[in-house]
Amino acid sequence: SPLTKEDIPDACSTKELFGFAIKGAGIVKISELIGDIHEELAQGDALENTDFDYQDIEFKDDRVTWRSSNAPIAVFTEGQLATDNPWFKFVPYRPTKGVIGRIKTHVQLSDTIILQGKFLIPREDGSAIVGATYNWENRSDEPDSNGIAEIESFLRKHMGNHWSWLEIFAGVRPTIPGAMPAVGPHPEQRNLFSFNGFGSKGATQIPILADGLYRFIWEGKPLPEEILPARFKKEPNPLSKRWIAVEIARDRVMRHLKPGDTAIDATTGNGHDTLWLTQSVGPDGIVYAFDIQECAIDIARKKIDNLSIVARTTFLKVCHSQMISQLPLNIKAKAILFNLGYLPEGDKSIVTRIETTISALDQSLTILHPNGIISIVIYPGHQGGTSEADGILNWTKSIDNSSYETEFVSNPSGNPKSPRLLFIKKRA
Hints:
- It contains 10 helices and 19 strands.
- The protein has 428 residues and is α/β, with parallel strands linked by helices.
- It has 3 domains: 5-24 and 94-175, 2-Layer Sandwich (D-Amino Acid Oxidase, Chain A, domain 2), CATH 3.30.9; 50-91 and 179-232, FAD/NAD(P)-binding domain (3-Layer(bba) Sandwich), CATH 3.50.50.60; 241-426, Rossmann fold, CATH 3.40.50.150.
């Protein structure tokens, strides 16, 4: 449920009420759970503790062999080590280190978990678990000083001096963009299966998806398409040049965007990009979506509501040329998306205009986070599209190359009316 004043203990100093409260909940320590499972498997002589090399796997007579063992199928459950799996290289795993701690506190947290960017989870012994950070560069399981400092800042802000450390530890999440795991068969090697990419939040899905995978293998019951590994290995889409351009743009943006980031959809349109950004930044991230058409905002809002996902998405019915005046002071966005032209299946007389687009792009440069990216999909094929494309090209000549890197990508067909892409990256 949304966080309210009643959920925050009197001793906590926080005055901010964004976030959520989960009443009557607890925490699962995955490492201890895995240890218990290993112990049970070992007692049944069903566990072999040894080193593992993918090169030891072979395929013979529709069976999978590994050293002296063979079976009709093999299921990979490697966690963050799935990035090394040669058969599932196409799955875009993004391992993320997180620092977590256990604190001693006299604050009575009852049985309510508080989520405010970080989480605060009471334990039965009176202590509390607090976390977690996101570190995309360091995959070790040792707590790093920056992560510790980030959590201490959170604790000081929300609990003052009513706490002290009991222990600090770290783990690595095997996350996937879009926050959905990779569960199911390899699209070509059908006797190889993946059961990976859950991350810390997705771990609660493991029991039901393990049952689903079992039923898929032994009973032939289908798995949801949105969790299949095959979703990441698609043939080029022949249906629409517009679609291809958008897919290329998203692929490039994903190199810069991660859960917890702030992102902006400067042209909400039919809401596809808004939904995609919302899923990509997750419940800890923030998305701002601009459009001058009420119908576009309604379409986008329904897309998000229909998925019943936890989202911090703000819709702004205003021209993107007024971007800065509508956003929080000192905001820094990791990704800003422009999909120019008109609303598909909408009023084609309502199109983006060069003067407002340039104004929005100028403002975007000032609020772009270091290592952030601006993605612009340009459509010369509609009325006014060519002059808009030329105007943006001329505008890029004024960009400070010492601070920003620009890249144009054209359709390989060479058709002058095909969509074009412009990427602007802010140097770190």
